[in-house]
Design brief:
The chain is an all-alpha fold and 231 residues long. The chain is built from seven helices and no strands.
């Protein structure tokens, strides 16, 4: 992703190029993850109609279910990328963006779109932790049949995570664009910058505790045949 020029730096506040390089890696990872989720969704949309009647109800139940399983699995891999890099990039954007950026700057719309990303990352993080707990229980209680049950548990995790993956394909892409625009400000010694980053991280962590929606009940890895087709 090309970086956008921003406010010039003075000789006394030259940017930390190593910090900017690390920032670019994180931002590019998020941009690629958002694009990967969109591609998984587009691939499913391209074939989903072939499994359904004109009224949208599945007629090829096996093909429809297998297609959604594949979509959800591909998308979850990119959700993991957001869990690794998203919180730090989000904190950096919030600490670095200025009032003018929110009002009418080139990233004002993107900054608006990332307002609710905390709860999305929080819920995806909960699903990830629940998965770790399930695997730990399997290792201790069913070592002989773990592979069979692990595959089923993975499908359920991916299915639960699809809603948040779909959200991240939009809000996560906006976060990556905003972060890219702010690259030239990263690593610049600004008064109070470190404190703002720490405060932004604290706000993000606080928002992730208790602000996430309840987990929807899931009894199968994919929609039942009676359910209408949905993204």
């Amino acid at each position: 992703m090309p970086t956008s020029p921003d406010s010039p730096t003075s000789p006394d506040s030259q940017p930390d190029t190593s910090e900017q390089a690390a920032w670019r890696v994180r931002v590019q990872a998020l941009a690629s993850a958002a694009d990967g989720i969109r591609q998984a969704s587009d691939r499913w949309d391209a074939v989903s109609d072939s499994h359904c009647a004109e009224d949208g109800w599945p007629v090829d139940e096996t093909g429809y279910a297998d297609g959604k399983v594949a979509r959800d699995a591909a998308a979850w891999e990119h959700v993991e990328t957001f869990l690794v890099h998203g919180p730090e990039v989000l904190a950096g954007v919030r600490a670095t963006a200025q009032q003018a950026d929110y009002l009418d700057g080139p990233i004002s719309t993107d900054l608006l779109r990332v307002r609710g990303i905390d709860s999305v990352l929080a819920r995806a993080g909960e699903i990830h932790r629940e998965w770790d707990q399930v695997i730990a229980l399997m290792e201790g209680s069913m070592p002989g049949s773990r592979k069979l049950y692990e595959e089923r548990a993975r499908e359920i995790r991916n299915s639960e995570g699809w809603h948040y993956a779909d959200e991240l394909s939009h809000s996560g892409a906006a976060l990556a664009r905003a972060a890219d625009h702010l690259t030239d400000r990263i690593g610049v010694d600004q008064p109070g910058h470190t404190g703002r980053v720490q405060a932004a991280l604290a706000r993000s962590a606080s928002g992730q505790r208790g602000a996430s929606p309840p987990s929807p009940p899931v009894s199968a890895a994919s929609d039942t045949p009676a359910a209408r087709r949905s993204r």
